[in-house]
Amino acid sequence: LFPIILHFIFSAATPYATLPSVLLVGPSGAGKTALLTLFERGPFAANPGSPEKLDAVAKTHTSQVPATIELAVSTDPSAASYRADLDAAGATAKKFLLVDTPGHPKLRGHALAHLSSTAPTVPTNTSSSSSSSPTQSKLKALIFLVDSAALSDPDSGALASTASYLYDVLLALQLRFHRRSGSRAPASVPVLVAANKTDLFTALPAALVRSQLEAELGRIRKSRSKGLLDSGVGADDVDAAAGGAGGEEADGWLGGYGTEKFSFKEMMEFDVEVEVLGGNVLGEGPGAEKWWKWIGERV
Ligand code: GDP
């Protein structure tokens, strides 16, 4: 009985240690800070069409360290809205942490380190005043935010740079799958590609964001494997790197081997579900409700 009581005391003393977390990643300018701010304000978020208020709040989050905020989503899926005042509604809620990560290429290592870790938990930065003080948290999902308007501009280079970051993120999750063993295995992490800024008339619709990213990921995959061949690594090694016996961790072939075109569905082989949903943080449009619902179903 004594050990049971001890266990109870310790688990009661660290209530935040097990809060699930959702990692927010994506290139600079995609709208991560804006989204974090929108969710943080919840029922107090500015109405669509009045971006000024949100921008003012977003400016408080400009540091380069990841910001972590604690949020709660209703356990009742039909009531899942980030605008819902859960206290007022007397609703039961699931708490989780939303962890923002820097989008600048030189600082992305932090986000990727979370993913390739073999630990089942993700350390969260607690410098944000609005968060509690968790040190470790179960990673439940990942949101990869993209700027759908930038993607539609072929001269911006946004497609190539966005896809290159997404490639690294998905590859880290693929390696995470290969490394898991035994009961301390990290659970699989579903990915939401959130196609942001659909309020802009130049924005690509979600279906096109999906197909363009898939095509670009396929191109990156091809050129990276060609790089391996050119560098003197034999074809057998490439095969092994792609998932052949014993070689899963060797190198960067994303998805199933032997396919010409890359498709997000290939990631299911590694237990990684990828969904693409459009939305917007500012302006007129569908807003962020679909993304919130997606999170609610996974935390
Ligand atoms: P971060 O670098 O990913 O944190 O991106 P920010 O949150 O700083 O957003 C970059 C810019 O995009 C800011 O000027 C935002 O106001 C703007 N932005 C973010 N979301 C939207 C959106 O849904 N629609 C439009 N039109 N602009 C947005």
Determine the number of helices (DSSP H or I, runs of at least 4 residues).
10
Mean pLDDT: 78
CATH homologous group name = P-loop containing nucleotide triphosphate hydrolases
**Helix and strand run:** HEHHEHEHEEHHEHHEH
**Small-molecule binders:** guanosine-5'-diphosphate
CA(first)-CA(last) distance: 32 Å
Strand content: 15-25%
What ranges have pLDDT less than 50 throughout 5 or more consecutive residues? 8-15, 56-62, 125-135, 238-250
The proportion of residues forming helix, as a percent range, comes to 25-40%
| CATH fold group | Rossmann fold
**Globular, elongated, flat, extended or rod-shaped: what is the shape?**
globular
Integer count of domains = 1
Per DSSP E runs of 2 or more residues, the count of β-strands stands at 7
What Rg, in angstroms, do the CA atoms define?
A: 20 Å
* Secondary structural class: alpha/beta
